[in-house]
Amino acid sequence: MQPPRSSHFFLLLLSLLTYATASILTITIPPSNLLPNPNSLPASTHATLTTLRSSPSAPSSSSSLGTSAPAGLRLKAPLSRKSSFVFNIPSGQVQGPQSFLLDVYSRDYVFAPYRVDVDADGNVAGVWETYRGNAWENRGVEKGMVQVGEVAVVEAKVMGTRKFYEERAGFSPLSLFKNPMILIVVFALGVTVGMPYLMDMSTSALFYDSQPPFHPTINAPSTNQPQKYSGPRDTRGIRETFPQGANSRG
């Protein structure tokens, strides 16, 4: 037996009224030094809002701005074309003030987690920075939030990049000189090869320094020393050139 159409219309009207009074939380990713172009993030990037008082038996629902679940469970929003995440927080399903943990999951980057407090009407009361292992009562630095009507806009913070593999540095000949053993071997080789040449040069310098200085008048050979006798001179050629009596008067 099919239910009457009036019940379907009543449920549809109730859901519209619930989402009409919902508060919208928008998480934007601004450009930064680590992430200059947020549009380069993969499509698998998403954000979640998780509360401590979750109820596993509560059903989940989806909205046009992103997949969401009733307050008290887990809200999830995919990455939009504007590099942002949009959460719908239905006020009709919030039972008193609640606190959510905002996590942004990305394949290549690590984002800082936030604490998001929501009041009983479903409005965002504040956003604070937090970290793993921190007591939930200890609130960190409050994030600046822009409130435009029912929409609260908060900027996400990139902490770093994910590295799954260690990059090995390429081989460089200059890296050998960073090894102390290589430096010791090079120094020992230089001393072994260069020390004999240094000693030879120093010995020659000492020898020349030990010699007396040279003086041209003192150290020059003497010309007054007696010459060695080499025997009688041969005068026959002189006699043939000048015969006897050639120069005598007739």
From TrEMBL:
Residues 37-184 form the ER membrane protein complex subunit 7 beta-sandwich domain. Residues 50-69, 217-250 are annotated as: Disordered. Keywords: Membrane, Signal, Transmembrane, Transmembrane helix. Residues 219-228 have a biased composition (Polar residues). It is a single-pass membrane protein. The keyword Signal applies. One of its GO terms (cellular component) is EMC complex. InterPro entries: Beta_sandwich_EMC7, EMC7. The chain crosses the membrane at residues 181-199. PANTHER family: ER MEMBRANE PROTEIN COMPLEX SUBUNIT 7. This is ER membrane protein complex subunit 7 beta-sandwich domain-containing protein.
